[in-house]
Amino acid sequence: MTLPDHTLPIHAVVPGVKAALARHPLVVLQAPPGAGKSTALPLDLLGEGWLAGQNIIMLQPRRVAARAVAARLAEGLGEEVGQTVGSRVRFESRVSDRTRLEVVTEGILTRRLQRDPELAGVGLVILDEFHERSLNADLALALLREVQGALRDDLRVLVMSATLDPGLPARLGAPLVESAGRAYPVEVRYLPADPAGRVEDAVAGAVRRALDTDEGDILAFLPGVREIRGVQGLLAGSGIGLDAPPPRPSPAGGEGEKVVLPLYGDLPLSEQRRALLPDPQGRRKVVLATSIAETSLTIEGVRVVVDGGQSRTQQFDPASGLTRMVTGRVTQDAATQRAGRAGRTGPGVCYRLWSGRTQALLPAAQPPELLTADLAPLTLELAGWGTNDPAELPWLDAPPPARIQTARTLLRDLGALDEAGRLTPAGKRLLDFPTHPRLAHLLSGADDAALAADVAALLEERDPLPGGSGADLTERVEALRAWRAGDRTRGDAAVLERAERLSRQWRRLLKVQPDNAAPDPFAVGDVLALAYPERAALARENVTGTRKGRFLLAGGQGAALPEGDALAGAGALTVAHLDMTGAEGRIFLAAPLDPAWLRARATWQDTVRWDARTGTLLAQQELRLGALTLDTRPLRDVPAELKVRAVSDAIRAEGLHLLNFSPAASAFRARVESLREWRGPHETEQEWPDLSDAGLLATLESWLGPQLERVRTRDDLARLDLLPALQALLPWNLTRELDERAPTHLTVPSGSRVRVEYRPGEAPILAVKLQELFGLADTPAVNGGRVPVLLHLLSPAGRPVQVTQDLRSFWNSSYFEVRKDLRGRYPKHPWPDDPWTHEPTRWTKRREGK
């Protein structure tokens, strides 16, 4: 065996790593890019005594990195991948009986843990590039820590990263080993202002400048494949990347050819290696890469980085259950990683295509994927692990309970979990498929396995048809099958080649031969519905008469096809890709669905609901699939509880104004609510019932239920006598107290009984003619004399002339101003000079004289 090279910076801390692993089951290593932590350290650990001849598994978050790291490790031993060093990525295994060190992607490690929780024969697991905090890395760490605590106290875990949360070692209770690394200086150049327009134009322009002014190969970062192709086209238009030499000399690199190479996850392995290794013809390379080039990979010869400043990440919306790709600003830690690529082999330059001011405003880092992603795959894995409660595992950050609940709902719909959240036999079968549970259900449950393989492959790939080709997935299946049969004229050949490669893997797993025949008109939609049952959709014109192309999904959302799409006339669809950012979603990919598929899975449900438009109670049986109503028939013998619930829901939705509170009912509510507000410290909330709007709406069924059983229309609601129902809410022992503490009337000095108007939150109002209070010094009060009323003193015509809660002060001062203003207008009424001694009266002076 050829010994590995020991000149890399990581070797300065190898003794410390070995010693830490000898003493601790979990160790954290921080080493900058280029230190050799991924491509050298694992080889140094193979001979350690604590490993006891067992193997090492190293986790890499990306397939490109896993293959490249395995190749570099094997090269360090003078071997090929598959001997001492092996690799496993999805559908690709290069290992042998001799393999001691396996470089794997995240899903591979999770699969192995599910099948062999003890990891027999493995002594060390390395989690590389942990700073990315991918969902599977967090899951793997949680599972490994549980294995260490319950099954394998001899299993060691090494967490490695170029950048690190400073609090991580303490959170893990693990020692930290740090490597200084070997990074050359990188000059960072900002723009004076953020560029306007497309990122492709900005990146292409910066690449041209760098080719003219700087030395070395160039690595440019772009958010996705579409943008990479756009920059390729722009550079080709300038004569860069063509076979012919450029038209003029280059000051930095002299006269010579340049080659432009893409680098992204779905590239064939041979194309990835072209981007990573020096050009065999000695040409200057321009590598256009997605974020996969940020870490782990060293691209030989790169001295210049052009950072477009954007990244594309998945964003999951729990409300809609949809995941979409979102393009946003690069984070500060990712920008640092990208710039560091220019200083791996010598001093370099990084062009950041944004301003220095913007740099300070960039987010520090992406949140852990566990907190933002679709958790259906993780939830299925946890069920397979036998964990119903995620809180049982030692997470760095626990998955949000609401997202776990959303995932469980989907998995129950797919038949993967039972109502208790336990894994079903069908769910166990889904774990055998290295893909999202939706596609696993499609693959495992379709009657036409060959079609399922093609559909699953196309869903995981980019669209092979050009823009404007319509939304029908069936056309993509036909294009793939035509390509397989030798017709290379339909669609993007590179995309179709990748889709066929993936379909072939699924067919091998399903043990089925390819089918090149055109699929049945509804077959694709039926297969697709296995993955997206909540996105089975019914045309809205079937029920509302709206324009064609608008659909209602079983999940309750509305969505529409682009105007003029060929699928617009379909009665039903299964929707694969849509965007729900607006009030109505936009459908990008779908297939016609056989209405028989919907009816076969729908169930008859008794439905009693209030029609707000007509103000009537509708009672019928509906053939329903989620939010879709496929058929109706009259419902006879409607259960009373369904009537009460439907009317109660309508009142809650539209408000208490649907009910007609008589003056007596309104007054009763106001008296009780006032006493509830005035309750003393010895009284509890429960003593006086809550008759506020919120209280009555919350308890409609209990206090009004018997009367609601008779309601059929809005007029029936208005005729309900609410007073007896409200009075029944008052405990019998408080009825007398209500009359004593909040009387409906007060007797005034004239002998009149005057109604008290109660207003919860305000003082009660007593509106009475001024002359009826002559001689009264103290303001009348309620609530046992503790709450004075607000007197509205009225003129003989019944108009307020004074509002007061201090009657004594009124007689002594304001009365004389009122007397002066009114006695000429009302001469028949008494206006004595001394209101304290005059007899109170409700009559005129003539009437008094009689």
Write a brief structural summary.
Helix content is 35%, strand content 20%.
Could you say what the CATH architecture of the largest domain is? 3-Layer(aba) Sandwich
Tally of individual domains: 6
Superfamily at the CATH H level of the largest domain? P-loop containing nucleotide triphosphate hydrolases
State the helicity in percent bands: 25-40%
Fraction in beta strands = 15-25%
Query: What is the 3D shape?
Result: elongated
Describe it:
- The structure is a single chain.
- Helix 15 runs antiparallel to helix 16.
- Strand 26 (about 755) and strand 27 (about 765-770) form a beta hairpin.
- The chain is built from 29 helices and 31 strands.
- Residues about 1-5 and about 245-255 have low confidence and may be disordered.
- The protein has six domains: about 10-180, Rossmann fold (3-Layer(aba) Sandwich); about 185-370, P-loop containing nucleotide triphosphate hydrolases (Rossmann fold, 3-Layer(aba) Sandwich); about 375-510, Four Helix Bundle (Hemerythrin (Met), subunit A) (Up-down Bundle), CATH 1.20.120.1080; about 525-590; about 600-740, no CATH class; about 745-850, no CATH class.
- It has about 850 residues and is α/β, with parallel strands linked by helices.
Element layout with pairings:
Layout lengths: L13 H10 L2 E5 L10 H5 L9 E6 L2 H14 L8 E5 L2 E3 L6 E5 H10 L6 E6 L7 H16 L5 E6 L6 H5 L3 E3 L7 E6 L7 H15 L3 E5 L3 H13 L20 E6 L5 H8 L7 E6 L12 E6 L2 E8 L4 E8 L2 H9 L7 E8 H6 L14 H10 L15 H13 L11 H6 L6 H9 L3 H12 L12 H12 L8 H18 L12 H9 L4 E4 L10 E4 L4 E3 L11 E8 L5 E8 L2 H7 L1 E9 L4 E10 L2 E7 L5 H15 L8 H16 L14 H6 L1 H9 L5 H5 L3 H6 L4 H10 L3 E3 L5 E5 L7 E5 L11 E2 L4 E2 L1 E5 L5 E5 L2 H16 L22 H5 L1
Parallel strand pairs: 1-7, 1-8, 2-5, 2-6, 3-5, 6-7, 9-16, 10-12, 10-13, 11-12, 13-16, 19-21, 27-30
Antiparallel strand pairs: 3-4, 14-15, 17-18, 17-20, 18-19, 20-21, 22-23, 23-24, 25-26, 26-27, 28-29, 30-31
Helix pairs in contact: 4-5, 7-8, 12-13, 15-16, 15-19, 16-17, 16-18, 17-18, 21-24
